[in-house]
Each structure stands twice: as C-alpha cells, then as structure tokens.
Design brief:
It is a single chain. The strands form 3 sheets. This protein has a 6-stranded parallel β-sheet with strand order 2-1-3-4-5-11, with helices on both faces. The chain has 12 helices and 12 strands. With 350 residues, the protein is α/β, with parallel strands linked by helices. The chain has 3 domains: 52 residues, 434 Repressor (Amino-terminal Domain); 137 residues, Response regulator (Rossmann fold, 3-Layer(aba) Sandwich), CATH 3.40.50.2300; 130 residues, Response regulator (Rossmann fold), CATH 3.40.50. Strand 1, helix 5 and strand 2 form a beta-alpha-beta unit.
Length: 350
C-alpha cells in the first residue's frame, strides 16, 4: 500500500495543501471547522507527517521548550497541565527543564534549548530576571515569560494580578472584623512575592492607617509557613488574622496552629493565595485568592504559538509578534471556612 501524503489529506478534506499544513502545524489562522475537518481526514487516512522532512521544509522542530524554577508541587503540576493541553491540541512536543532557582542552571537550560525548540516558555519569577534572560536567551527565539518581571525587549509577559489580589484579600479580612492582620511573605527575590507584599502593605495603610505592617518572612513552602505560624503564636498579643502569600505556606501555618490547639478561624483567621487543589480539602477549608493556574499555562502556550507563527493574539496588546506585551490575569476571592465561620466552600460571595 502506497504511503499516504499530505496531498491525500487535502483531497479528502477538500482544502489546499497549504491549509492542511497550517492546520497540522497549529497555526492560528485556520478556522476551527476547517481544522477539525483536516484532523478528521488525517485520522481517517492514518496520515503521519514525516518529522525530519517537515523540520527541513519548515525549519521547525515541532517542539516547545519550557524552563521552570521547579517541577515539584501542585502549582507547577497545574501549570504544566495547561501548557500540555495546548501543545497536544497542536500536535507539538514539550522539552521541559527545571533550574531549581539557580541562575547558573537557568542559563545552562536556556542555552541547551537553542536549536531544539521553536519557542520558549520561561518562568523566572526573580527580581534579576531581565539581566539573566538577556544574557542567555537567544534574541531570535520567540519567548513568553510567565510570572516574571517585565523588562526584556521583544518578550511577551503573562502573569497574574498579584498586587490586586493581595489588596482584595486584606480588604476581605478587614471587612470580616480583623484588625491585627499579619502577613507571611514569600522569598525576597521573588517578583510574585514582592507584588503580594506590596499589595498587603498598601491595603493595610489604606484600611488601618495606624497599624504597623506585621510581616514574617517565608519561602513559599510548607515548612516556612509552619515556622512562621509558630513565630506568630509566640507574639503577644497574637494576630487575629494571618494572610500567607501562597497556599503552601498557609497549609504549613494551619498545621502549626493545630499542633498548638489554636482554632481557625475562631481564634485566628487564615488565608492564602493561588487556590491549589488541596486548599478546598483541608480542614478548615482554606480561604484564598484563586489563580486559574492551568489557564495561565494554556494562555502562555497560546501566546507563544502565535509568536512562533508570526501572529499576535487579540488580547496580547502587541501589534506584532516581536513587540513586547504584558497580560495580567485577574484573581478571584474564594471565601471558605478558614476566614469566616460557616462559610460555604468555594463560594466567593459567602
């Protein structure tokens, strides 16, 4: 039996060879109905593009690179889920690397991606991001930065409204009657942590102008949240509410409170940020700022595909794929039992 060619797929789908090529390569300028027809024809004929020939003709590797500070934890699992869904829909592969927060390993990972990928998704949430990336990121390689500080010419930046989310959480705790609101901060060199701390400070200054910020340093992990919680319990008077800069620290803090017999929220209210899946299943369920983490990964991947194709998305704010753009996804207040007694889990209005 003769091998099936792209011309056969075009004939069955009743479109041009160029349209088949664009549909199979995940280009955005193909109508969804046409793309589905092409994919159905390819499946019916059991057509498999010749990877080597396709790379030679298009100069594409059909692979996206993903460089993250870590791969451990629910946040990164959800982020990768969103990225993978978009990549699979476009029949692309992922090349993933983690640098464990080490700038030298990050530079090595970025250099190792050269020539192997068509574009890069990079999460570099550190204050020194522009310097590190400008030294190691290939200027001609399309790139989208996730949860990173803006400042790299030509790169799109997509993240979340950390500042606005932190302001909204402090306001919720204030509206719930709390006046001694402590904050467990994230790493000092982390951009997300910096913005959440800034939101806490500004909201506290607006709502409680006579109160001094009460900040305990954490590290975005459960252990640092546990240590911070024990430190806060040793204070006199204790805080009546604690806002942790992420859910993992909030869960560590919750465990420390439970060990000391402190009731949440009756004795101390507690809240986090991110809304990782575990947040709704602990007891009491955790009040948090919801970040659609999988959607963050999916939006970043779609933005990258548009840049690889030389296009711009309607919401990118960019006139061309080479222009710098920045998108901040909104957060959503999710009120659960840890900040309001008898709260309805998952209902932001309760």
């Amino acid at each position: 039996m003769a091998s099936v060619t792209i011309k056969d797929v075009a004939r069955v789908a009743q479109v041009s060879v160029a349209t088949v090529s664009r549909a199979l390569n995940g280009h955005g300028n193909v109508a969804e109905e046409v793309r589905n027809r092409v994919l159905a024809a390819a499946n019916e004929l059991r057509y498999t593009p010749h990877a080597a020939a396709r790379s030679l003709s298009s100069r594409r590797t059909q692979t996206l690179g993903v460089v993250l500070p870590d791969l451990h934890g629910e946040f990164f699992s959800e982020l990768m889920r969103g990225i993978d869904q978009v990549a699979r829909a476009s029949r692309l592969h992922l090349l993933v690397s983690s640098y464990h927060g080490n700038p030298e390993e990050q530079g090595a990972a970025l250099r190792a991606m050269r020539g192997r990928v068509d574009g890069l998704l990079v999460m570099s949430p550190y204050v020194a991001t522009p310097t590190v990336l400008s030294e190691h990121l290939e200027p001609s390689l399309p790139a989208v930065l996730i949860n990173s500080q803006a400042g790299l010419d030509g790169a799109a930046v997509i993240g979340v409204d950390n500042y606005g989310g932190a302001v909204a959480m402090v306001r919720h705790l204030f509206d719930s009657g709390h006046r001694r609101i402590a904050f467990i901060a994230g790493p000092e060199d982390n951009f997300d942590a910096h913005e959440r701390l800034r939101g806490y400070r500004d909201a506290l200054a607006e709502l409680l102008p006579d109160a001094r910020p009460w900040v305990v340093q954490g590290g975005f992990d459960e252990a640092s949240g546990h240590r911070a919680g024990r430190e806060l319990l040793a204070a006199s008077p204790r805080p009546d509410a604690v806002f942790a800069a992420n859910d993992m620290m909030a869960l560590g803090c919750l465990f420390g409170f439970a060990q000391s017999g402190v009731r949440v929220p009756q004795d101390i209210a507690l809240s986090g940020f991110d809304d990782i899946p575990l947040a709704r299943y602990v007891h009491p369920s955790l009040t948090t700022m919801r970040v659609n983490i999988a959607e963050l990964g999916a939006r970043a991947a779609r933005q990258l595909l548009a840049r690889v194709a030389g296009e711009s998305l309607p919401d990118s704010g960019a006139g061309s794929a080479s222009a710098t753009s920045s998108i901040a996804l909104p957060t959503e207040l999710i009120v659960r039992e840890s900040s309001v007694a008898n709260a309805t889990s998952g209902n932001p209005k309760s």
